[in-house]
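> call design_seq(struct)
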């Protein structure tokens, strides 16, 4: 453990500059974190307000990497964006596990459903998510749908936003045969319980999945380092 309070420390990085999303990420993280962990969610000051395109991603990644470099002493890290922003770079210099929501949530969905769907925010995110689905060899079991709401809008969680989200989930279930749903955006964190209650199926909050996997990995591999986990 890396601090005097005898708690492990988790750093959760929201790579966009929207403090409302960061607040949601902190609340979601705290809701699933074990009592032996303390988490801090932060975001860069200089970054796109939302990451909704490849261009946004390219602008956001250097700031996210700099946050990781400036905070080398945490016990685990999560990038709170449905992408692998800064993850591969971070694994080159961090001596603690770093997890992204894509890998974590798809791994969990595979445990509870033979077919599942990722519901994200805007259509521009879909090609990048499909690239990750292909990378994880999940094309036969996973579909992706965009609700047509921006990340900043999603964070507001108004009744109108929720209705749009519910409609998209219903389409994923009825048209794609989804038996479980992944909420594929940091802006959608904290909404899984509402969606699951409405549809009666497993709904995975991708940020919470990454938090749980990162902390579990630290527990399984207490001596993890970038040297010991690479040939």
């Amino acid at each position: 453990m890396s601090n005097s309070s005898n708690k492990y420390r988790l750093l959760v990085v929201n790579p966009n500059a929207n403090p409302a999303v960061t607040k949601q990420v902190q609340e979601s993280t705290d809701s699933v974190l074990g009592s032996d962990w303390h988490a801090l969610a932060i975001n860069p000051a200089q970054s796109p307000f939302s990451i909704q395109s490849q261009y946004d991603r390219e602008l956001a990644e250097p700031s996210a990497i700099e946050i990781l470099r400036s905070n080398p002493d945490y016990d685990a890290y999560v990038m709170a964006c449905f992408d692998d922003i800064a993850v591969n770079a971070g694994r080159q210099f961090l001596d603690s596990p770093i997890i992204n929501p894509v890998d974590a949530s798809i791994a969990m969905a595979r445990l509870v459903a033979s077919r599942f769907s990722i519901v994200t925010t805007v259509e521009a995110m879909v090609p990048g998510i499909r690239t990750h689905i292909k990378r994880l060899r999940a094309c036969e079991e996973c579909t992706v749908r965009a609700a047509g709401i921006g990340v900043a809008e999603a964070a507001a969680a108004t009744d109108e936003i929720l209705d749009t989200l519910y409609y998209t989930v219903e389409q994923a279930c009825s048209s794609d045969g989804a038996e479980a749903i992944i909420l594929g955006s940091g802006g959608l964190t904290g909404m899984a319980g509402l969606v699951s209650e409405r549809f009666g199926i497993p709904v995975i909050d991708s940020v919470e999945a990454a938090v749980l996997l990162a902390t579990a990995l630290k527990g399984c591999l207490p001596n993890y380092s970038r040297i010991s986990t690479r040939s």
